[in-house]
Amino acid sequence: MPENVAVSASDRQGFDRRFYANNPDLTVFRPTSSQDVVAAMQSIAANDPAAVGHKVQIACGRHCYEGFVYNSDTKYMIDVTGLRQFGTVSLNDRTDVVCIGSGYGNWDMYRMMQNVYGKTLPAGSCYSVGLGGHLTGGGYGVLSRLAGLTIDYIYGFEVVMDNGQGGPEAKVVTRDSTEQQDLDIYWALRGIGGGQIGVITKYYFVLGELPTSPSLMATTSFGWDWDQASTRLTEQQFVDLVNTFYSIFCSQDEDTWKVWAAFHANHVESGRLSCPAIIFNPANSGVSDEEFRQEVDLLISDWTEKFNAVVPLTAEDHPINGHPCISSRSLIGIATPEETGQPAARFFSYIDGTQQLNGSGENQHGKYKSAYHNFIIEAQMLSAMYKGLTTSVEGIDLSQARVQMDSYGGKTNEIGSGETPIPQRSSTVKLQYQTYWKTPGMLPCQTDKEVEEKQLDWINTMYSNVYAATGGIPVNQNNPAVDDVVTTDGCYFNYPDIYIGSRVEETPDVEQAWELYFGSANSERLQKIAAECNPSGWFTNSQTFQYK
Length: 548
Ligand SMILES: Cc1cc2nc3c(=O)[nH]c(=O)nc-3n(C[C@H](O)[C@H](O)[C@H](O)COP(=O)(O)OP(=O)(O)OC[C@H]3O[C@@H](n4cnc5c(N)ncnc54)[C@H](O)[C@@H]3O)c2cc1C
Hints:
Blueprint: E1 27-29, H1 34-47, E2 56-59, E3 76-79, E4 86-91, E5 94-101, H2 106-117, H3 131-134, H4 144-147, E6 154-161, E7 169-174, H5 180-189, E8 199-206, E9 216-225, E10 227-228, E11 231-232, H6 235-249, E12 259-266, E13 272-281, H7 289-308, E14 319-320, E15 326-327, H8 337-340, E16 346-349, H9 350-356, E17 365-373, H10 379-389, E18 401-407, E19 429-437, H11 449-466, H12 510-533
Parallel strand pairs: 1-3, 2-3
Antiparallel strand pairs: 4-5, 5-8, 6-7, 6-8, 9-13, 9-16, 10-11, 12-13, 12-18, 14-15, 17-19, 18-19
Helix pairs in contact: 5-12, 6-10, 10-11
This protein binds flavin-adenine dinucleotide.
């Protein structure tokens, strides 16, 4: 393991500039093997045992949306970027297992899977997200309707952990493990999310089970002006647009799974609403490239007609921030609606299209929240959303604020809610509440608290208003404490949000967050496994139970 590498500002901050690890004594371990991770943990245990509990953090792609890694408590960081093993290995008498080190990012993974095996994973679209936190938290992306979540494909893990029986050690857990505790760890790591239980050093997949990359993909995008002639888009028009999006793109018919789209309900300060869409030609579909092109043209004509009947489309470029973070120009073909009356498609090979979509956007200050919905979004929820999106707040810029509604379900909903920790297996649309802002002229370690508070207040207020009927949160479908039929189904751990529950003062208890992320039954099982496997609380954060 490289030693005596100076700790720099780059070690103290990730994608979200709200968070900074300012401890002057910060030590960063930079392992290149699982044995290095064991050595790092042994060194901490020998020299500073009191640090175990909340001062040791793991860093990979640095894309966490809360300050779990970068905060003033963090004293030791194990940065797994150097864990880069890749290739076919023998495991449990199998010779068809693909191993990928947890230090890679999405873009490396897509290229290696495609260029070496002709395979892929239905993981996130942003290139710079790290596999370390991303895959164990679910690994959701634009292929998920067609292929499910990445956790659905994980065969096993190599994880360094200290279960209180003789110090840290690297162990391999797979679905073919024979010990019950190993099977429990395997189950837990397929969704519990990063920074818990141990340091994942390798992910394993069975080659023949991996999705074959689609042969082609097409992209397009629809946009609308918030200001129509002299009037602003009305609440009814907004509701009609969202409902049209839902009826076109959130269908659960299997022949629609190859289409993924997102309605970007951008704040009025951004000027426009947008709806990027991606159509895949799945491998072995039997559809030729030319037939695919014709099918895409027909689909786009149909969608254009339906959307135009609600609110006329704009011919202008419209913002697509969030995931992916790109311009609508990069998704639409040369022709514009102005010239042809409808957006055109752009056609890509799978790897080229994946690269086209992979923008993560610049590192900024940001806040994220999420919600799963199993049915069409209720009218009173859309009304509260419209109010939030058309409200400006003095002193802050909301031009990068939005509710992104992703078409969801399909293959993701083909497995049971207890098979992995992620119980949301009947949702049809996944909502991502986001706001990003810049602080020009400020150093990485600085933040404008007043602006931050106003931004947080704006997004938290809109969110709790949308879910006012259920106490300000999108309660889970199977919550035993809820009698009424609810249309929501909790939240996504990979978009962590301390305001739904944490150890931080003035937020609800952490139990509420786990209920929302994992549902009652899975949450109970996860707590038991985490307590058994991580008794000293080696890896914890303000949203885990073992935080000390
Ligand atoms: C721009 C952007 C785009 C995103 N797009 C998507 C998307 O399309 N789909 C999606 O599902 N999610 C997406 N996410 C969320 C992302 O999956 C999570 O933020 C994820 O946790 C990031 O992992 P990381 O390794 O990059 O981040 P880090 O901040 O390095 O780590 C995140 C958490 O995982 C822990 N961790 C890191 N490495 C390991 C390891 N090896 N073992 C155990 N724990 C570890 C860390 O301690 C931390 O708690 C996006 C986030 C951003 C900022």
